[in-house]
Amino acid sequence: MSITPPNERFMAAAIRLSRWHLGRTATNPSVGCLIVKDGVIVGRAVTALSGRPHAETQALAEAGALARGATAYVTLEPCSHHGRTPPCSEALIAYGVARVVISVTDPDPRVSGRGIVMLREAGIEVDAGLLEAEGRHSLAAYLTRQTKNRPYVTLKLAVSADGMIGREGEGQVAITGPEARAQVQALRAETDAILVGIGTAIADDPLLTVRTPSLESQSPIRIVLDPSLALPLTSKLVETARQVPVIVVASEETSLLEAEGLPPSALPGYRGRATGLDPSFGPPTRGEIGKERDPNSLDDSSSPATADVGRGASTQPISPLVGEMPGRAEGGTPPADAADMDSRRAALKAAGVEVLYCNPYHPEVLLPALATRGISSLLVEGGAKTARIFLEAGLVDRIQLYQAPVVIGERGIESPLDATDIPSGFAHTSTLMFGEDRLDEYERGL
Hints:
Layout: H1 5-18, E1 32-37, E2 40-46, H2 55-63, E3 71-76, H3 88-94, E4 99-104, H4 114-121, E5 125-128, H5 132-138, H6 140-148, E6 152-159, E7 164-167, H7 178-189, E8 193-197, H8 198-204, E9 221-225, H9 236-239, E10 246-250, H10 252-260, H11 270-275, H12 286-289, H13 338-350, E11 354-357, H14 363-371, E12 377-382, H15 384-392, E13 398-403, E14 412-414, E15 427-434, E16 437-443
């Protein structure tokens, strides 16, 4: 393919356009499309909210008759299969487009290469791979769920000048300034789900919503690793569960206790199975976790994929860490017996909280469970121990490390990571300043 400056300019514009609806297109990718005729953009679109209409059909409709003989710049290979809508490749053919330029080919086996073949068989010139690295970056969440059967995971840490992320016994401590916090709100708005450990949920009592004016409706699903259902019913998360979804990830042993009416001590090998040390422990079945994120949205762009345990992932199971165990922080008391457990589960459900039974301290099991629910991107934002669990499992794809001039001092909670010990496999991709705070981003290759 001949890569000329105009080609790159139009594809770069399509990639920027694709980012407008990140985190807002359900299980479909957010794709950008430009229709260009004689060097002029005559149609442009991004995948609509909730995932359809797709970008190509909207851009073609805007271009109308001017699409005949034009070039379409698309960030992802046009679909070739019939879902709830006809294939975008058929629409490009019907409008008489002369050339299609694609950034990334679609790994979905229903599409991969077929869209290109369909276009070429219709006599349309097709070039693929233009600005592919940039295109893959904008499609990272979709590509990760398609190829690894799990969400794309971003770990966000705000670290003080003395290497701390908080102070014991004080709940939320402001480390970064308002400019950096606004940037984090924007990150939440383009992410499907946000996750914290039960220790953070109890100690900080966070909302985990998007509070930027006009973006509140883009708050992510909120997930708490809560093996024993210790999340207080008076917490902000529970009190707002009917406005913004909340999922608590409880140990599968919790479900077993409810069924058998037994205390934990009565189950042989309970500790081994709960932590994954028992080799018979396995991931939940699709029947247990296969709910759609949006029951009204049928996925046009998903398929089963091989599970991924992460580059550099340890083969040893990761047990729960003391700082994230329920009952350690004030206000959270784990249920005392099976009856109390059942009562707590019922109360959470009545408040609108969903309980997902899946070992919370094994991200290699949890992440595929979230992927089957249509979650393509996950922000891990709370708890040093929770961050360490994902890092040690090798299941973090991007690190956002904020470094602030604030000094925490005594009783500081040490960060699990700083700029001097970034795990191998990550490349430093950018440095940005937000007020006095520095953001360094590190990413693994897709």
